[in-house]
Design goal:
This protein is mostly helical and 131 residues long. Helix content is 73%, strand content 0%. Monomer. Homodimers and homotetramers. Mainly monomeric but also detected as part of homodimers and homotetramers.
């Protein structure tokens, strides 16, 4: 199966688990890489991880991340639209001074959040496609 097919095959299940995945992604990111909080002005000074776990703002950001991922998968066969989407996201994150090194952290935490949702559908090939 090609990369596009691989990603699309799990995307509906991922969409269904979007809320859970968005919470896991944000929580784990700040637990494993607390320096990422510096990019999020709302969370910079929050030291209590429990407060972050219940944060509406963090939950909303996680849902925006999952929405972006859903749009990305839907545009895999439309390179121009996919590029425009990625450029727009890059511009907004540049504006927030999000260092590129953080993207790798988010990617790794995304994999950790998605794997349990896709359960038996998770394969090495699917993991490589998401990476």
């Amino acid at each position: 199966m090609n990369v596009t097919g691989c990603l699309m095959s799990g995307s509906q299940r991922l969409t269904d688990g979007c809320f859970c995945c968005s919470r896991c992604l944000g929580n784990r990111l700040f637990e494993t890489h607390p320096e990422c909080k510096d990019v999020f002005f709302l969370f910079r000074d929050v030291q209590d991880l429990e407060m972050l776990r219940t944060s509406r703002e963090l939950r909303a950001h996680g849902l925006r991340v999952m929405s972006f991922i859903e749009k990305t998968v839907a545009r895999l066969d439309q390179p121009e639209r996919l590029e425009a989407l990625a450029v727009e996201l890059g511009k907004s994150h540049y504006h927030y001074n999000a260092a590129p090194k953080y993207y790798n952290y988010v990617g790794a935490e995304f994999i950790c959040a998605v794997q349990p949702i896709l359960k038996e559908r998770w394969t090495t090939e699917l993991e490589e496609a998401w990476k």
